[in-house]
Amino acid sequence: MSKNDTLISDAVQFYEALAANNTKTWWQDNKPTYDTKLKAPALQLLEDIAAPLAKLTDLPIHTKLFRPHRDVRFSKDKTPYNTHLHMMWRVESGAPQDPVFFFGVGRDYVTTGAGIMGFDKPVLSNWRQMVDLDTDRITAITTDLTGQGFTFREPALKRVPAPFDKDHPAASLLRMKGVVASRELESSGTLEEQIMSAFNALWPLNSLLISIADA
Question: Coiled-coil stretches, from where to where (predicted)?
Answer without folding.
Answer: none
